[in-house]
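tl;dr need the bound structure. longer version: we got a ligand (zinc ion) that a collaborator sent over and nobodys looked at where it sits. i said id run it. heres the input, straight from their email, havent touched it
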Amino acid sequence: MIKRYTIRTRKEVELIDITRQVAEVVAEAKVEQGLACVYTKHTTTAIFINEAESGLLQDYLALLEKLAPPRAGYAHDRIDSNAHAHLRSALLGCSVAIPVVDSRLALGTWQRVLFAELDGPRERSFIVSVVRG
Ligand code: ZN
C-alpha cells in the first residue's frame, strides 16, 4: 500500500512530527509483519527518526545551523542561494524504513518520525509505502 501526504510548512526551517500519518497507513494496509518506508522526493527536505522533545527540536535546528550555515560560500548559491538547505537534507537523509511488527510500527518508546522542512515555507509531500514480508 502506498499513500501520499501533502503538508503546508509554515517556516523556513521546521520539524514536523509525521508519526501519526505513518501509523495510519500501517493500520489501513492491514499488514501484520513487514516494513514501512517513508520517503520525500524534495531535495531540500529530509526525514529522520529521533525524539521530538521540544528542547531537542531546537537543538536539531541549532546543529544544522552550525554544520551548514546559510551563504557560506557554496558553489550552488550561484544558482538559487539555497545550498545550505540541500546540504542539510543530504546530512539527514530522504527516507526511513521502520519494521512493522504485529501490525504496529516497531518504534522505540521515544522515537518519532520527523519531517524536516529546510527551505520553506512551501507545500511539500511525502510518501508512505507499507510492504508485507
Ligand atoms: Zn537549490
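gonna send this back to them w/ a short note. The chain has a mean pLDDT of 98.
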